[in-house]
Amino acid sequence: MSVPLTLLGLLEREPSHGYDLKRDYDAFFGRGKPLPFGQVYSTLSRLARDGKVVISDVAPGSGPDRKRYVITDVGATEVEQWLTQPVDPEPHLQTVLFAKVVLALMLDRPAAEYLDTQRSAHLHRMRELTEIKRAGSLVDALLADHGLYHLEADLRWIEMTGARLDALRKEVRR
Amino acid sequence: MTVVIEARDVEFAFGQTPALRGASVAVEAGEILAIMGPSGSGKSTLLHCLAGILVPDAGEVLFDGIRVDALAETQRSSLRRDRFGFVFQFGQLVPELTAAENVALPLLLSGVHRKQALPRAYAWFARLGLDGLEQRRSGELSGGQAQRVALARGMVTEPQVLFADEPTGALDSLTGEQVMDLLVGAAREQGTTVILVTHEPRIAAYADREVMVRDGRVNAPDRIAS
Ligand SMILES: Nc1ncnc2c1ncn2[C@@H]1O[C@H](COP(=O)(O)OP(=O)(O)O)[C@@H](O)[C@H]1O
Ligand SMILES: [Mg+2]
């Protein structure tokens, strides 16, 4: 799960304070593991250092939450690249892929196309494993099968999610 | 590479139900193409249009430069018999015939003499690991064996294109993969083009490439460089 990219993605909706980002992160991506405030602010200052966000205005008073963050072109490009590129077809990608789908829907981007790209990356990897299986020993075949079954499980999830995108869009858009 | 068979903007409706709404796909010679997609999306209808079993309401089907959709039924039927092979989900072997006679059937229907047809059929039994089952009737074969006999029958005429519609759909995973392994092995040896309809990713992974059918249209993913 990439915290910096997810926060950047959330910032692409609208400029936000650290507190709002943490709240939305916890609600959509935290899954019972809230993001510590310390990590939110350290991530945001690294993003600022790298020119991916800027601080738009600072409210009077003290405390870290006086700052409002705005995504820059560099930051937006990075979100764009991350969303468009398929995740390496390894097992256990669900959380990353899930975050991409939710963010894509929030940002009104073509989530179905991202799922299609991911499906074809998965199938590409499955073809490679099938070729190994056809050419190799039984041990190779069984190892390849292990990968194949995991990838197949991901693909089923991709199908189910693809079929429910409209409903999910309603749930994550405000 | 040369395109051997192609659908261009094919439309087809069953009465009021549209099954294909402008489906296009081109298959190269010797390529093994998987047609994937949800149930009811139009996969089988597309395969039937490509194979000249159904005639599209609109659009074109080209095989080897021939407009298949413009042929008369008798010409399409000889095209299917002489140049195409078929394997369906349920082998559809003729129960009264022996396995060997089932395999020889397409040759006999093409006018090959029984004396030549049966030895050609027998050769496939060794090739597909079916030795000793030549005289069995379909009722005496397991699902996997029956499907291998059906594969032999689909390949015996050495077709240019083999059409396979969910050929492993009725089999368990291991048996299904054995059938796919044999199908791909035979097709590659022979240079046969294969159009494989399946909704199962693990079966589609035996193909060289996949396309997705959705709502009667074909979605080809951008090719990922190997
Ligand atoms: N013989 C038929 N009569 C009427 N409707 C049909 C017939 N065959 C298929 N259909 C309809 O056409 C659509 C596409 O079917 P089909 O090509 O069989 O899909 P798939 O093979 O992807 O499951 C579906 O809506 C299906 O209900
Ligand atoms: Mg079908």
Automatic annotation (TrEMBL), chain A:
InterPro entries: Tscrpt_reg_PadR_N, WH-like_DNA-bd_sf, WH_DNA-bd_sf. It comes from the Bacteria. It holds the Pfam family PadR. Residues 7-80 form the Transcription regulator PadR N-terminal domain. This is Transcriptional regulator, PadR family.
Automatic annotation (TrEMBL), chain B:
Pfam families: ABC_tran. PROSITE patterns: ABC_TRANSPORTER_1, ABC_TRANSPORTER_2. InterPro entries: AAA+_ATPase (IPR003593), ABC_transporter-like_ATP-bd (IPR003439), ABC_transporter-like_CS (IPR017871), ABC_transpr_LolD-like (IPR015854), MacB-like_ATP-bd (IPR017911), P-loop_NTPase (IPR027417). GO terms for cellular component: membrane protein complex; plasma membrane. PANTHER family: ABC TRANSPORTER RELATED, IMPORT ATP-BINDING PROTEIN. SUPFAM superfamilies: P-loop containing nucleoside triphosphate hydrolases (SSF52540). GO terms for molecular function: ATP binding; ATP hydrolysis activity; transmembrane transporter activity. It comes from the Bacteria. It comes from Micromonospora lupini str. Lupac 08. This is Lipoprotein-releasing system ATP-binding protein LolD 1. Its EC number is 3.6.3.-. SMART domains: AAA (SM00382). The keyword Zinc does not apply. The keyword Transport applies. CDD domains: ABC_MJ0796_LolCDE_FtsE. Keywords: ATP-binding, Hydrolase, Lipoprotein, Nucleotide-binding, Transport. Residues 5-224 form the ABC transporter domain.
